[in-house]
Hints:
This protein has six helices and 24 strands.
Amino acid sequence: MKPLNNDNTSCNPISSNCVIWQGPDIECIKLCKGDTISDVVFKLATELCTIMDELKITSYDLSCFNIAGCDPKDFQALLQFLINKICALENCCATVAENGSSTSNGSVAVVPVSGINCPDCITPIAPVFYFVDAYGNEITTMQLSDYVYTIGTKVQDVVAQAGIVNEALVTQSLRIGAVEDEPVPTFTIPTVIPTCVLPSVPTEVQIVVTALEQEFCLLEGATGTASELYVAINQQCAGLASSTVLGPGGGPMSAILGWVNPVNNLADSLNNMWLTICDIRAAIQTIQANCCPSGCDGILLTIQAVITAPTTLTIYITGTIPSAFTQCSTLGTTFIISDALGGSTTQFIDVISNLNNAAGVPIDLGATPVNPASNLTIESTICLIDSATGTTCETCVSDFINNEASCPTITLTPDITSIAYSYFVPVASGTYTIQLYNNAGTVLISQNINAVVAPDTITGTFTGLVENTPYRVRLVITIGSSTTTCPFTPVVTLPGPCPPPSSVTAVIVVV
């Protein structure tokens, strides 16, 4: 190196910035010919710091060696530790600690020991043979001879198991061959002899099951579903079992012979219902036999109203009126008849002369505001005077009609896959919904809704049905806020035509 300022009086001859490197380029530290000595020193110092950091013992993770003693303190000790480990792997013999003493833990190097050669040496083992010793340490090495013995034992077990497997394979092969040699099995549909749903002759089981399902649907439609039956059972009067008997004898109802408590099913409910009815009858018979009512107590009246023609309401008056009584009004007793739409009419009826009249009292509703197709309510306050004592007696009677008399007759004409219908509405205008159900009356299949202005004839057809299948049809009539559900009408689609014969051959005979 030489100063650059030999001829420059303004430069300090001893400044490192005025001295250049004239040696060759050194690529590894990116030192170039012509760099100032300041740059050269800086790059050398940087490389030295990097090397010192790399040689720092704390920069290395030695945890994989499981060192039992102290870690190496400097780089020289680290190199010696690694040399010892390499020697142990190269020579595969007894282990010697760093201080030269023999040991067997994993923190020492393995070096040859005089007079000891493999197979009496330590060797790493496959992970499948790892085990944990009594001190909780995982053991990953073994004496070579022990390792070979362990491997041989494992191989012996594998060979024994292979023999068992081979025997099982031979047995299974024989059994599979026997199965394959068997003829193809045939299946015959079993038959049973039904006793009620079909004629009592041997019948294929699937036909009997279909008939049973149809009968069950009919039975459920007639009796209600299980949930509906349980709801009906729960309608029993609260505290009925502990209520006092009405008839002779007294005591609680539960003391009646045969009483069931608690009620668990329909049979129990019917049992208790009949016992209750019998108790009521006994109480009434006692009243009839021992009580001679007089005055107002002798009056017992009920009324019942029935739609007997499209516009005719017939009222039946039954009961008992002592002979001394007359009506309070000479016009008769006032009866108020009202429908669910708000229409009403007032009629006067002679209660005494029509008492227990089998023909009843007919009333023509056609000329009144009352709609005879609606649900009807009939109410009356009957006033009677005891002519012997002058006592006036009053009693209220009423009846309600859920009007099904307005249901027109439905004419049904079945075909193979359709059912045509027709019905005539004479007087009651409203919304008429005709519904098609399955045979059990539980599944709505189709419905048609018509706004009818009476009188009118409504026709239509249900299509897309199954041949030779029973169905049910009914009307639901809505007039204002009143709805009447008419009874079902059963109908069965026609059977389909017989299919043409197949596989038929003809022989021409010439005579």
